[in-house]
Amino acid sequence: METRLLTCLQALVSLSLSPLPGRPLTRLCCPAPTKCSFSSHRRRIHSSLSPLDPRCSAVCRSDVFAAASCSTAASKRTLWFGFLFATGWGGDLAHTACSSPPSRLRISLSHRRTLVGSATVIGEENGVIPQANGSARVRLGATDVIVSIKAELGKPHPLQPDKGKVAIFIDCSPTAAPMFEGRGGEELSTELSFALQRCLLGGRSGAGAGIDLSSLVIVEGKVCWDLYIDGLVVSSDGNLLDALAAAIKVALSNTGIPKVTVNLGASPNDQPDVDVSDEEFLQFDTSGVPVVVTLTKVGRHYIVDATSEEESQMSSAVSISVNQHGHICGLTKRGGAGLDPSVILDMISVAKHVGEQLMSILDSEIAAAEASAEDQ
Amino acid sequence: MATNPSTYALSQSSESKQRLQQRRRLFQETDWTRSDGRSFHQCRPAFLRTGATNAASGSAYAEFGVTKVIVSVFGPRESKKAMMYSGTGRLNCNVSYTTFSTPVRGQGSDHKEYSSMLHKALEGAIILETFPKTTVDVFALVLESGGGDLPVIITCASLALADAGIMMYDLVASVSVSCFGRNLVIDPTSEEEACQDGALMITCMPARNEVTQLTLTGEWTTAKINEAMELCLDACSKLAEVVRSCLKEAASG
Amino acid sequence: MAASSTSGSGRDIGGSGGGLAAGEMEVEAYRRLFPLPFYERHLLDSVRPDARPLHRARDTSIALGPVASADGSALVKIGDTTMLAAIKLEVMTPSADAPDEGSLAIEFHMPPICSPIVRPGRPAEVAPVISKQLSDVIVSSGMINLKELSLISGKAAWMAYLDIYCLNADGSLFDAALLSAISSFSHLQIPLVSLSDDGRVVAVPGDLLEDKSTPELVNKERKLLLHSIPFSLTCILHKKYILADPTAEEESIMETSITVVLDSSERLVSIYKPGGSVLAHTSTVKDCIVLTKHRMKELQNILEDSLSAMEVV
């Protein structure tokens, strides 16, 4: 049965058809305004967003937006991308018909920023500080992930006094998929956490980090922000890493870090007093945060945004994170089968292409939502 | 014995902290010499030997510079009771560190990330169909960590698997490269790893020209990735030859 | 197993060529199916399957300083049993009731690599037992004067973390662990330290020793003085036989063991006989003590040789 599914998938993929029943490719192409909910610091507002790109058409559901588009490649074959858009490219990919059944991307920016004054006590002398929360929920087809971000005051690592700290924890809810029951999700959870850390935090020296750690420092060597990024996989239908990375990017974009005023202690060895404002927030710069594109190899082809069904038949998958300069910020390979080095290089160039566009759309989406939030 | 938790390791005096800063700056320059006198594209001398633990089905010891690793392979043996029936064999990997492997005494606990990376690097090379219903356990212990730990573990594990007579498509060799500014430095020491801008690690089966595992951190251009991959793949095939000759020696001796 | 196949005793009785191979097979099968009769047949001839006489311990070697990042370390092999021990020194504030004494923390680990019975997350049952025995023996033997570990009375003292890893478990684990522990203590090099401005103890790098600006050193001795070093020998008791230094196979077949620890001035530090089906006569215990005395001389020589070899280098 499994082999039949594989051949069936391969056949469909090479014909550019969606293997999912009830999701013919054309249905996604109904142009309509996109809607997205976005709330500012304490108020909740709804705003409308116009279609993202003239080439992209979007599907609308009450609180949802999804987009997909098609274009014709040199080979006159329609290429499909699950992620928001599609692009065609020419002969360099002749051996890899890059197509995938598009699943819908739904992002709701739930900006519930609650100030939890008494929740956490940081250090004895600092007393109680309010906590800022940023969060985002991203749905890709049936994949549903939530990311929340907490900023707490901490102490920089002694070896890296000029950097804040970021911790990423991903949890796979036991209800998200049958295989996550009991302790089944643990291994995947740690794998996803490490993959995201690799993609977002850059090299050891901090070069190429998606999240600028030096911006988190308050007093060098003494006080810094610790960002806790907690991701929860609510429902799993493949492509978790991409969804989580997108959610982290969106969540970071509406994370406000409280403004702090520092009173340096009398002697240089004293821990400085830090006053945390609960009125003013500094916006986090997320332009450098990369997006992750996972290319899943099924048979001889590789596809973007694979569903669980497709992932069950994959031989291997490569997750590539791409930043705004088109540079590769991290790469992880999954799946047992080996890959020819030239295929990997080809995948990287494909991912760059896909990532750049996904990035620009996510960025403009965030900007538009923010702008409309300020208007209100 | 009740251990006193309030102990601290000897901290480096302020002079050596300055040295660390100096070294960081140095690494950013275009030309510097490595502390062990190697050229940028030269690997550490590799010492490999099979049969470190005779209670295991197969085992190997690897020493690359300061990094010292023992890998034991057990099985194929009965899978855990809770495991469901599987028509193909299972691979179970575990990497742990000794408490004294790092300069500052650690907890010596299991390394979950490396365990899963080791699993991913090996599973593509092992013919799991040859031992259905059973499990092969690959356990690694890092005796001393001196940089490039994971590549050494992977290479050593592949030698141990061969020593245990587990069927594989090819030997697996792994090499990492660090990126400093514009320079690529192969097989970094831990001192170099601590200051690197980015790192790329490749695990491959040289005879089949297949990459079983590839990880990358830091910011890279495509051209740089190309260059680093070529460098690593070349080093991998040379390393695989060393592993092969070690196996031949063990078989003839 | 590899060692036993090369041994010339008892079982290589067959002829040559194909006959030998078939004979080997049968012996190997007999050994697996009827291990006890197999051993008893050997014991009748006062020889063991690995060609050792009953009272002889396996070849023993000590390599000092295999772990560069530790302050003292030793790799000990007794036959195939391999132990790696390393000491790391950290600074602690001594307790109020013993202000001028340092402290020892000894731990024995059996990582999954050493034996098929240990799996990750399921540690071996014997590991904590051996840990406890080791620290009892080392503390009660008085080998180390804890006062030598003091740095500044009431303020700072050394905490010596001794971690022993079993790399290959092939019987007589306690003997090998104790030998690796004492070897690593005799290899221990105490770092020279000074007091920094903020009251912490910091290391003084070797190249700064001549420097006049270096703050005054707190300690001068780099070596611990080891008094009456304990050595041990484990024996298996089976019927009237005493088998010194058993392998893992022998331990699994014949269950009664007795471990004797003597210090270098031949005083008894500990005797450990954890039950078992054989009830030892006092004469048997005496025999074991005599065997341990011989073994102690042997081990002393091996340790001295490795220490002097290190000094030459």
From TrEMBL, chain A:
It comes from the Eukaryota. One of its GO terms (cellular component) is cytoplasmic exosome (RNase complex). Gene3D superfamilies: GHMP Kinase, N-terminal domain. Keywords: Cytoplasm, Exosome. GO terms for biological process: exonucleolytic trimming to generate mature 3'-end of 5.8S rRNA from tricistronic rRNA transcript (SSU-rRNA, 5.8S rRNA, LSU-rRNA); nuclear mRNA surveillance; nuclear polyadenylation-dependent rRNA catabolic process; rRNA catabolic process; TRAMP-dependent tRNA surveillance pathway; U1 snRNA 3'-end processing; U4 snRNA 3'-end processing; U5 snRNA 3'-end processing. SUPFAM superfamilies: Ribonuclease PH domain 2-like (SSF55666), Ribosomal protein S5 domain 2-like (SSF54211). It is found in: Cytoplasm; Nucleus, Nucleolus. Pfam families: RNase_PH, RNase_PH_C. Residues 125-258, 288-352 form the Exoribonuclease phosphorolytic domain. Belongs to the RNase PH family. This is Ribosomal RNA-processing protein 42.
From TrEMBL, chain B:
GO terms for cellular component: cytoplasmic exosome (RNase complex); nuclear exosome (RNase complex); nucleolus. Residues 42-166, 170-231 form the Exoribonuclease phosphorolytic domain. One of its GO terms (molecular function) is RNA binding. Keywords: Cytoplasm, Exosome, Nucleus, RNA-binding, rRNA processing. The keyword RNA-binding applies. One of its GO terms (biological process) is U4 snRNA 3'-end processing. It comes from the Eukaryota. It is found in: Cytoplasm; Nucleus. Pfam families: RNase_PH (PF01138), RNase_PH_C (PF03725). Transmembrane segments: none annotated. Belongs to the RNase PH family. PANTHER family: EXOSOME COMPLEX COMPONENT, EXOSOME COMPLEX COMPONENT MTR3. This is Uncharacterized protein.
Automatic annotation (TrEMBL), chain C:
Residues 57-191, 229-290 form the Exoribonuclease phosphorolytic domain. GO terms for molecular function: mRNA 3'-UTR AU-rich region binding. This is Ribosomal RNA-processing protein 43. PANTHER family: EXOSOME COMPLEX COMPONENT RRP43 (PTHR11097:SF9), EXOSOME COMPLEX EXONUCLEASE RIBOSOMAL RNA PROCESSING PROTEIN (PTHR11097). It comes from the Eukaryota. Pfam families: RNase_PH, RNase_PH_C. The keyword rRNA processing applies. One of its GO terms (biological process) is U1 snRNA 3'-end processing. Gene3D superfamilies: GHMP Kinase, N-terminal domain. Keywords: Cytoplasm, Exosome, Nucleus, RNA-binding, rRNA processing. Its main location: cytoplasm. Belongs to the RNase PH family. GO terms for cellular component: cytoplasmic exosome (RNase complex); nuclear exosome (RNase complex); nucleolus. Transmembrane segments: none annotated. InterPro entries: ExoRNase_PH_dom1, ExoRNase_PH_dom2, ExoRNase_PH_dom2_sf, Exosome_comp_Rrp42_subfam, PNPase/RNase_PH_dom_sf, Ribosomal_Su5_D2-typ_SF, Rrp43. It is found in: Cytoplasm; Nucleus, Nucleolus.
